[in-house]
Structures are given as structure tokens and as C-alpha cells.
Amino acid sequence: MAKLARAARGGLVSVGDAARALDEPRSRAARRLAALARGGWIERAKRGVYLVRPLEAAPGQRTVAEDPWIVAHELFAPCYVGGWSAAEYWSLTDQIFASTLVVTAASVRSTSQNLLGHPYRLFRVPESRITGALSRVWRGSSRVLVSSPERTIADCLRNPALCGGVRHLADIMREYGNGADADFQTLAEAMRDVGNGAAWKRCGYLAEIVWPGERALADTATRNLTTGYSRLDPSIERRGRLVTRWRLWVNVHA
After folding, report:
1. Which of 16, 158, 169, 207 could form a disulfide with 199 if both were Cys (CB 3.0 to 4.6 A apart)?
2. Going from the N-terminus, what domains does the chain have, and what CATH number goes with each?
3. Phi and psi at residue 83, in whole multiples of 5°?
4. 179 pLDDT higher than 80
5. What are 100-115's pLDDT values in tens digits?
């Protein structure tokens, strides 16, 4: 157990980790981990990954992993923490969300999961999207990926549900613009990496509202407009009023 605990990251150990720590074949390490789980010494997180329980934990007592970000990194890789969780991390919002939002390219059965005492909201993307403006940050002794402030906004412009809707996105953008580190050129580059036609329309429209003095980004959005019309908030069915300048149905107040 001491060897497994030393090999664990954020309390989590995989079959491969155990095999290396115990210096034995993977098949034997897998059987040993399964036996330890049956005995209550460790807890199964998912197939091939276990949480090492503290020695002082009572038999049958549920164990909560220390850091939900580390759990996400181990269970949903390739992935990064994004959306509202990244906005919280970068102090772009005061709103508190119960679940950790994870953008992942892994195959997941459900977009809402509760694992090892932590709730998660999962958004699947192609693996090619797990690149670009992502930051590696330390969580304890482990490093995990989180979207940069600019990538967070760009992701949410593409899919406002990542931050809980357009109203919250507008607040995040205002907070970003008020910060000393606001960099609209870097934001435009993040938009070029992940933005689509609808994202550029939302970007231009919201930029004029929340950053009226910042013309360069709105001009860049104008050059990237696509044909057709999109909804400002795609989660709301009604169309609202049409803003032809941005080819956007404004169906919610920002």
C-alpha cells in the first residue's frame, strides 16, 4: 500500500502505475488492485484506475479524492478544465458552480457524472481541439491543463453552454476587459483557433456591447462573418430580434 500511495497522483493509481511501483507484470498488478478494492483498501474510479484510500479511513467509508482537477486529468484524458471552471480559476466570475467542467476527447457515456465525491460536466470535442491556448498549472504535485482566459472566452463564444449561457458569458467578458492583463489580440488568435461562424457573430455583437472602445476585435469579427443567421444563445429556442449587421438572432439580453 505504501508503494501504491507513492505512485499515486492525486490519490489515483492506474494498473500501469501499480505494475511499475510493484515491479510485476500488468496482469498480476491488475489482479492485485482488484483484490485490494474488494477488501476495501482502495476504491475503483473507473476500469483500470483506483483511488488509494487513506489508512485511517473506516471500512466501507466513502472516500473523496482531494482535487477534482487531478481526477479529471486521470479519468478523462485527453482533456482540459474549461468553461465556468476555468473562468472561476482566472477570477473572471464570482458565480460558484457545483460541478467541474471538463472539455474532453475521451469516450464518455454521460455528460454529467459524479466520481469519487466530485460532480463533473463533460463536453466532448475532437482530440484536435485539445491544443492551442491551454495553460499547465500546478495542483499539488501534479500539473493539469486549463484553458487560458482568452481560450475560455473563445470556447464559450462557440458554445455558450460551457459557461452557463450568454448572460454569464457577457459578465465574464466584461470582467476580462476590466483586467490589467486583457489582450484582445491574443483573444482574436484564440478565436481563430477554435471559433466558427456563429462564434464570430457572437464575438462581434458582444464585443460592441461590453467593450465599446475596442474596435479592432469587432472589425476582425466582421471579416470572419459567414453566411446564414445564428442565435445568440443556441440553448434558447425563440429567435428574438434580428441584427443583420451581425447576422444574429438576439434572443437574450446580454
Report:
1. 158
2. 2-52 (1.10.10), 68-250 (no CATH)
3. 55, -135
4. yes
5. 999 999 988 899 999 8
